[in-house]
Amino acid sequence: MKKAIIVLSILLALLVITAAILLFTDVLKPSQSESAETPTTESAAPTEQTQAVTEPTAESTEAPTEPAVEVVPDEQINVLNGFRVDCSFIDGVRMIELQTFADAIGWDTENDEPQKLFGRDTFAATENGLRLNETELTAVGANGAVYLPFDELIAALECPEYIDEDTGVHYFTPSARRFEIPQGVNVPVLMYHAVSDDIWSSIAELFVSPSDMEAQLAYLVENGYDAIWFEDLAHVEDYDKPVILTFDDGYEDNYTELFPLLKKYGVKATIFVIAGAPNNQQHMATEQQIREMSTSGLVSIQSHSYSHPDMDGLNYDETLYEMAQSKKIITRIAGKEPIVLCYPTGKYNDYTLQLGPEYYMFGIKMNGGLYNTSANPFLVNRYYVSRYTDLYTFAAYLSMAGT
User: Which residues on neighbouring strands pair with residue 96, listed in sequence order?
Assistant: First the structure.
């Protein structure tokens, strides 16, 4: 019994201590109603020191920025005028940044005056975006950048689209647009090959001396001749004395010797590249060199077939392969779709003339004299300029330009 009383006494003492602790805690804790009450005006008003710390700055009082627009990257790989351009989708519309587009086509966005590009297109900035020829394009601002509708731009440029079926890359080349050739204009087309004093071939006449090349370019400039590309024949009326300089095969010296001279005198030239040769054959320009010349604005890279065969001996399928394969490879290398095929050794047959228009706009012979734009565009004549052509003969070749 005594033990039981002791145990009960201990339990009672524990209960008393527990009750005391609970009562003390309840006194210190505010009631639920008090904690839910809104602070009084006096307690809510910050002190003078607090006001100095929490007072909004001028920047924080500005209107909130617009919510971010969702810009979804376009997975399609696009090359415009030789330059890789990344597009995005905004509200389901494929868009391109305005500056990216301008850089690719050479449009100066700092110039407010209308600008003529590719000989046929007029670009002008507007309050809402861009006027391209007769098409008004509305710009869209998103996440700090300005965008233009890409597909509308391509349509306004009437720009062909070439899809590389192997890589899936889409190429857009404004200069490759089909056009009607103005008739009746004499345009001397000159045929060169190598430009070098390092004569590594047994056919020395193919190597025009760099000093003679420079003298010929200087003559062109000093006498008011306009060195153009075949693409420029679409607006040949813009030139008083048009002439086309062409270089067959795509030799490395076209980059090391000719290209610096073209830049020095601001003269344009066309180089016919054997598509299967770059990086594969000695003395040929590399893909990197070809690409650099193509993006310079001075050199048009065109086709000299894929493997340089005598095309007059090819059957239908072989001709088809040479044309299609060279077009694909040159488009990959230069980033621009070629529109001119130069027949190797100047030879061709019925298959050449039949399939040519499916892939190109012009076919070039080895010689034949003066080219007139009324002639068959797949039988373009040229004058041959060799290592032994003097300046007097060179001037005679040009004399009928523009007449």
Answer: 87, 148
Q: What is the pLDDT of residues 315-343, one digit of tens each?
A: 999 999 999 999 999 999 999 999 999 99
Phi, psi for 279 (deg, rounded to 5): 70, 0
Alpha-carbon distance of 130 to 137, in angstroms, equals 5
Give start and end residues of each alpha helix (H) in 55-149: 98-105
Task: Please check whether residue 230 is in contact with residue 270, taking contact to mean a CB–CB distance below 8 angstroms.
Answer: yes
How many whole angstroms separate alpha carbon 63 and alpha carbon 308? 67
Is the pLDDT at 297 greater than 60? The verdict is: yes
Task: Please tell me the distance from the alpha carbon of residue 290 to that of residue 98, in angstroms, as a whole number.
Answer: 27
For residue 46, pLDDT over 60 is answered with no
* Per-residue DSSP letter, 175: G
For the segment 154-188, what is each residue's pLDDT rounded down to a tens digit? 999 999 999 999 999 999 999 999 999 999 999 99
Longest dimension (CA), the chain: 143
| pTM, rounded to two decimals | 0.81
Q: How far lies 120's CA from each of 109, 133, 239, 306, in Å?
A: 18, 9, 13, 31
Residue range 67-98, pLDDT digits in tens? 677 889 999 999 999 999 999 999 999 999 99
Residue entry with tokens 């065109």: 302
Can you spell out the DSSP letters for 220-244? HHHTT-EE--GGGGGGGGG-SSEEE
For the chain, domain boundaries: 72-171, 179-398
Positive/negative CA dihedral, 7, 13, 19, 22? negative
Per-residue model confidence (pLDDT) at position 57? 47
Rounded to whole angstroms, how far apart are CA atoms 343 and 123? 37
Q: What angle do CA 124, 125, 128 make, to 5 degrees?
A: 135
Domain 179-398 = CATH 3.40.50.460: no
